[in-house]
């Protein structure tokens, strides 16, 4: 007989810069499969330190990338115990959001969520289930999953999709499916393509920063 239990856990996330009354933009950055927040967040450290605050949560599941030792990566979920995995990361991300922003007047802040690869489905479900304030959703080398794409929040939240022209993981067939899903949901995202692979490009991120003012 399968049973379940709810337990408190301690887990971490990473930030860059300070959240002050001079902060204009907050960026929640969700990593991809096999990455760690500690290193992922550094890819975005090209912002103005006084006006931008970066927050990188980390997937709750960790594993060795090769064999039984060495480098460690994290992921947001697998197909095993899928619904509980989703509920867990939505709770975790929402608590990070509340802890960081609870004492701040959100009216003058632009809250951006940028997710990469596997993090795109995570960010989409988080936004759909939590209804947090989000002024822009950026999905980089990923998509809104089928189970939430029809949610009203994606019709009211500015959406940007980013793809590398040489992305070895996003095949033409996958792109076709992504755009069919977006079109079926009657969404009208901004599309950015850059010459690159399955990776974060700092110059493209600088363009996003400029657009967010």
From TrEMBL:
Domain of life: Bacteria
Pfam families, sorted: Abhydrolase_2 (PF02230)
The protein's name in its UniProt record: Predicted esterase
Any one Gene Ontology molecular-function term assigned to this protein's record: hydrolase activity
Domain Phospholipase/carboxylesterase/thioesterase: 14-208
InterPro entries: AB_hydrolase_fold, PLipase/COase/thioEstase
Species per Swiss-Prot/TrEMBL record: Thermoflexibacter ruber
């Amino acid at each position: 007989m399968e049973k379940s239990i709810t337990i408190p856990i301690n887990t971490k996330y990473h930030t860059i810069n300070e959240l002050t009354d001079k902060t204009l933009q907050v960026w929640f950055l969700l990593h991809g499969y096999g990455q760690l927040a500690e290193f992922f967040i550094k890819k975005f450290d090209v912002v103005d330190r006084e006006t931008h605050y970066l927050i990188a949560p980390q997937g709750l599941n960790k594993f060795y990338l090769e064999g039984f030792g060495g480098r460690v990566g994290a992921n947001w979920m697998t197909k095993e115990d899928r619904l509980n995995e989703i509920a867990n990361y939505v709770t975790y991300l929402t608590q990070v959001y509340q802890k960081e922003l609870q004492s701040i007047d959100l009216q003058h802040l632009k809250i951006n969520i940028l997710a990469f690869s596997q993090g795109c489905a995570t960010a989409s479900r988080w936004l759909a289930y939590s209804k947090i304030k989000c002024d822009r959703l950026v999905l980089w080398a990923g998509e809104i999953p089928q189970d939430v794409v029809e949610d009203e929040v994606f019709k009211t939240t500015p959406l940007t999709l980013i793809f590398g022209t040489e992305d070895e993981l996003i095949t033409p067939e996958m792109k076709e499916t992504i755009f069919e899903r977006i079109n079926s949901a009657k969404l009208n995202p901004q599309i950015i393509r850059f010459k690159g692979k399955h990776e974060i490009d700092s110059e493209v991120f600088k363009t996003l920063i400029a657009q967010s003012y």
